[in-house]
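Supplementary notes for students who missed Thursday's class. We covered one full example, reproduced here. Read the sequence, then the structure, then the short commentary at the end.
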Amino acid sequence: MMPVRPTPAFFFAAICFCVACVFLGAQILRTVAPDDRPVITTADTTTGESIRTPIERGTLKEAELALAIERDPFSPHRGGPPAAVEQEAAPTQPTAEMAQLIGTVALPEEAGVAMIRWASEPARLVRVGQSIATWTLQRVEPGTATLVAPDGSEVVLRVPRPGR
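Structure (token representation):
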């Protein structure tokens, strides 16, 4: 009978197996070996028991870790963020920065549509009589749109000329 010769694939598989065994052995040793890392001890606020937290070398300073443990965001005793105080937005007058007339469609009998971009919102179509923010579209003419505020003041927006 003829002897069987191992192929290169066999040698590659054997090397991979040996490397995997080395990594597995190192992991087992790290798990079983005594822990000689420095430890920060803090008291649990609910039970008063000591909590020992090991510090990885070279990652955090002891003071930073102690502060993070004190301010634990996942603590069940920690309150939520302070409630935001909602303020009513005061009606603002449209300015060149806040309102931009993109285009108009003037129709007979005081009807029409204007494409207006308000502040950083996307542009939208507004018909005569409809409101945008606190302003109402009163009149549409070719290239212009007139907005009226609740107090009766008017602002005329113009479509910018090309290149401006």
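Commentary. The chain has a mean pLDDT of 77. Residues 99-158 form one domain. If anything here is unclear, bring it to office hours.
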